[in-house]
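Team,

Forwarding the record for the chain on the shared tracking sheet. I've put the sequence and predicted structure together so nobody has to dig through attachments.
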Amino acid sequence: MMMKCTCVTVHAAGASGLAWALVPDIVGAFRRAWRPDPNSGMAGRGSLRKSIALPVFASDALSSVAYAPDEILLTLAIAGVAADQYSPWIGLGMALVIVAVTASYRQIVREYPSGGGDYEVASTNLGPQAGLIVAASGFADYALTVAVSVSCGAQYFGVVFPWVAQHQAVLAVIVVVALGMAGARGSGAHRGRTRAAIVYAFMSLLGVTVLAGLIEALAGTLSLASSADYQVLAETDTGLVGIAGAFLVMRAFSAGSVALTGVETIASSVPAFRPPRSRNAAATLTVMAASSIAMMLSVLILARLTQVHYVANPARYLWFRGRPVGGEFEQAPVIAQVAETVLRSPWAYVPVILVTGLMLLAAATTSFGAVPALSARLAQAGYLPKQMYRRGDRRVAAHSVVALAVAACALIWVFEANVTQLIQLYIVGVFGSMTISQAGMFRHWNGALRLARTRSARRRLLRARVVNALGVSLTAIGLVVILTTKFTYGAWVTVLLVGAGYMAMTAVRRHYDSVAGETAIKRLREQALPPRVHGIVLVSQLHRAAMRAISYARATKPSTLEVTTVRIAAEETADLRAAWEEAAIPVPLTVLDSPNQDVTRPLLAHVRAVRRTSPRELVVVFIPEYIVLHWWQRYLHNRSAARLTRALRRIPGVIVASVPWRLG
């Protein structure tokens, strides 16, 4: 429901006062997170302690608590309000999957501590094609993480500020652009502490809300949510009975699967932890999973106790007093409704809503920090442009960040910042990459078992293989469920994006392999020097820039050298001849005719004629070029030279040498 935040303070009854009693502890956690830490630098330096690494790398997973319960409830609402009683059980099933997947990823961080994550596991054990599928899924997940997190964050801010809800898509795009610009500049230690403060504030405030709600429920003073007065109109008459009911439960389970997002992030960030890195990363994974499960189940239980109603299309399926609520009705997310019901006072529940929105924005920054690392690994393997391997070059790293921001903005704009529609795309890539990586770990243990010599080592490896077998089974089942239930609801878009990314990276690698084969030296004694070099200096008039080009060409000592000009105006050519004879330059001047006053075609024809006369001769064309002081001056100089350079580079056996003259 659209919350109306007023300045009237309503005293919270019973356990709501506990929120204010714990405010000093929340402030203390905030200050500890912000306290300067000389060892909490950039992620690549390998110095993050667990208290900072948890919010930095787990914010994506923890933020899923803000939208996973919503997706479960709105899916069950299709069968009517009575189906909401099954939401805690679906949450419990998701908790079991999270436990199994977390146990599997704890083994990944121990066996592959280099930070390659799912991509390294799949590439090493299943081959480069499997690694490419995981990488393509990873890029899609990063873009969708940004799109979903920012869109959901705008939804939470829209609860407090109605004008945000009215322009949600536009404002979400602006936020993504701002986050992308910040990510392109690099992430410093202070940003890690800022994110830590936001995450710990979210966990603390949500924990206070849950604790207060459970105490009120035990005391019998827990109120009902404002949405409890509304009637949910079922979209189907079958409820949760029969095949249709089972299909709906599967849809609700797949919708809640977004709670697994972000689990793989820590596996890709092991080098950022303090030593012992693998142990600290595994411990952080455990804390993250426990926190995510506790918060998700608590929100679902409180939503059930307060009878929160949340539907996909409130204008049609949410009724009040026997009539639809209408198209202008805005419903608040589940956490916002729970906080309002439990804490009652705007001074208490509005901070919960705002911090949840900030938490979602912090989760979006995780992708901007992770995409350069994955891009660098793929570039090193030849599946992306080679220059992206230089992660230390901020401008190079910014290219992947900008591409991610553009993709996220496009998704937000196309789907109008609709969180539910974006999530349909989101979970396919998550489960796909998890399934492939777990299969890779299963094969990894099979190889290790063949080399094990002691009984204790075999027992340890067998236990590890059982963990990954359980993980791959659950994620594979989840992937089948998602593809079955979500394909026509938008999951096909992710499949298409992953396929397009796979083909694009394959094409890049094919190009690099082709270039390597074409440029490889066929014979060890292959002739490196050409038999003759013919130099051509292009001039339009005799000035200092032209004289420098001529001097440089003579200094290279080509076999033959000529200065060439194109006759555009007879007077200018006559002046050039006179200046040439007066300067007594010991190089012949060649004048080319151009009936159409075109410079490029006569010069290209002349160079091709030289090449035909001496096919084995190397032709070097020297072109004077002005280096200007201001950007707008580039449009006043070198335009003909630029076109000519592009054309000459296409002629075999021709080298273009630019001779700069700096103006000013």
